[in-house]
Amino acid sequence: MKVRNNSGVVKWLLIGLCAVFLVIMLILPLLYVVITALREGIDVYMKAVTDEYAVKSVLLTLEATVIAVIVNTVFGIFAAWTITKFRFRGKKVISTLIDLPLTISPIIAGLIYVLTFGRQSFLYGYLQNAGITIIFAVPGIVLATIFVTFPFISREIIPVLTAQGTDEEEAAALMGAGGFRIFTQVTFPHIKWAFLYGIVLCTARAMGEFGAVSVLSGHLRGKTNTMPLYIELLYQGYDFTGAFAMSSILVIMAVIILILRNILEYRGKKEEKS
Question: What is the rounded distance in angstroms from the CA atom of residue 178 to the CA atom of residue 193?
Fold first, then answer.
């Protein structure tokens, strides 16, 4: 009985500490963003979020996010399938390289692309002749976004495929099923929730990326400014209402993504139990 009382005290103490931490570190800053964004009225808020440059930053963010998610979806499925279904030398090297963007600073990632595709690179002349501009242009932003987000989908799928094993695929192959049919009817039903969860995480990371994109964008207003970069530009220009108004849009997107993540997590657990 004494142990239970002590456990109860510890439990509520930990809950209280977590609640205080979340309020100070998360809830209060988010409330401050919303309050500051609406401080001068809804008309000023709407003017800030419908400004020409604001709309362009939103569209560029969505463009980079969609492309990154598509590319990382293809890469994630192929990488996860390769690592879990085949035996070959260098498997651990590939697995380690997939995690590399999680350990490298986004600023360093941006500098890597500047060195690879910038004026000092041997590739620069070929790119110029082909009419391709990467640095301080949209392609550079897309590449940076892909780089910082490509582990998310594969890392959600790999554990599921590893736990699944290869027995079902081998049985389907013995029954004459082709590779595409095996994937769509045998493999994908097992990984669909992890796959969708990875897409949600990839989307969230892509929309909020700042460091690598900042290095590669050149901060060309209306051309290469994503939402985080545009918010920084407004804040440095002392347009606090505009900066917090745009921040509130990111907050809304984050809440939507969080809801989707919880729905997918719930559906996945429910399906596992059934």
Answer: 23
